Amino acid sequence: MIGRLIDGRYQVRSRIARGGMATVYLATDLRLERRVAIKIMHGHLADDNTFKSRFVQEARSAARLAHPNVVNVFDQGQDSDMAYMVMEYLPGITLRDLLKDYGKLTPEQTIDIVTAVLGGLAAAHKAGIVHRDMKPENVLLADDGRIKLGDFGLARATSANTATGQALLGTIAYLSPELVTRGVADARSDIYALGIMMYEMLTGEQPFVGEAPMQIAYQHANDSVPAPSLKVPGLPRELDELVLWATARDPEDRPRDASVMLEQLQLIAAEMPGTAEPGATAATTVLPSPLAPTMVLAGGIDELAADSDAETQIIGSARHRTGPVEATSADSTALLRSTAAKRKRRGYWLFALIVLLAGLAAGTGWYFGSGPGSRATVPDVSNQSADAASTELVAAGFTVADATTSCSHPTIAPDLVASTDPAIGSSVARGSTVTLCLSTGPEILDVPAVVGIPEADARTQLARFAVAEAADVQFTGEQPQGAVIALLDADGNPVGPTAPEGAAMTLVVSAGPIPDVAGLSVDEATAALDAVNLETIATDPVFDSNVPDGAVIAASPQEEGPVRPGSAIVLTISKGKDLVAIPDVVGMGMQEAIDTLKAAEFEVSYNFPEPLFPFAKVVEIDPVAGTQAERHSTVHITAQVTL
Same structural domain for residues 252 and 163? Predict the structure, then answer.
């Protein structure tokens, strides 16, 4: 594919990445003279209308979005039997690469990246598009600092039926509970996946792990995502709450779309400790000045501020007097007593209110902190005996049900705790009753017949087994490229008709037949084998009467056994016919001529009786002397008797 000109416009330069449905190459747009990324569907999927329509849907979904945080799509088309899509080229890394290098990110880094992702996702949701494959691999971090969301290969319009059908689409580690249980996705499913990504960015780990995809899917459907601060103490409480909000098992409890979550994240970024503006102070209280035992109420009474209703009434009556008025000592004393009494009563009420509020706060704190209303996280008691699990649950403040239930589990031994109800890691009221589910061991399942079907379909049918992520790819002419050749167990033997749930298995997948390069030139044969990732080794040329000089006589594996991508193929090269000059034997005796031709490695024929050999000389040979003839070919002698 390298060097190929796509649709007369895009010159392929190098390969960037390879996925399950397509390969992405770096190319040059010769018309606009710019670098682009061109995504080309795998050839073995081009005849599948489902994959082709999904590929076209990705182009249409992404093209409808014009947002700085979404990878731009420039073009989409078909070149011969090859479907392609042209996108913006972003040199850089993915969020997955960043997490592999740094483990976990700081809250500030997480907020920056999630804000950008939510911006692009909000644009998609506003356009009526559900991404359905949110994961770190699809978040691109460009070298110039831009952050973009890409890969809308599983996107669907929210107005359409967004059920996934028979297979679960998307990456299992980021599937929402409703996708696992009902196969239905909407904008809130993207929010759930983004919440799992936030947890992974803050802690460096995914919240749910397991040896088999079915285990992870079960946890998504039945367990609540724990707070990131339980894994990394010291994380801001606001980010804990945002992650728990986004990953609520009930879609109704999550943000309705990315724009709602983006608004909340922006508020959190502004109000997180260390970001608020300093200098906040308590309200200022102004204390009244003490009054003298006696005072004169004159015509300037309007300048005196009233401290109470009684004062206001007395001063107000004085305002209607036309001359100076002298208050008696008794009037002043009555005024002071009335004011003091009102202030005293006001103080009692204020003190009582403060005591009441303090009592309410203390009671509320006790109720929700250590009382009946407090909540606690169900500890992980899996893989423990029932007695040990009960002891740990009681110590954590729970009540353990007397009766247990049974459930199969692919990895936990029989009679040990496989799960709990409420689920492990969920936050419930302290004192709640927890029911233990004891493992009955792995369930024995019928193994589906997957030989001859595409690898993706085989993995879907084998979802309850631990199928290795990397298939054993081998060249064969028995099955088409991408189809399953065999299913092997952990020891490399063919899997029987039944196997335990979660059993380790490996798919052997066809890479198609080894290209037939016999008769091609060395360069042509090498290019054909290199195109399917096979190395070539050329031997010393040999003579061959049927194959032209420089052409390949045969190609065979260097080693016995299966041929896999990267294996070496030995090329036997022809030197053409082995030609030598015919010696001149005309005039020689018959026996001498025969010996001379045989010494030159020719076969000899003649129509002359052997008894007359001593009396005969060669008068003619065919082919004539000096002619180039193939070694071991036949030269005919004509002789006559000379007396």
Answer: yes
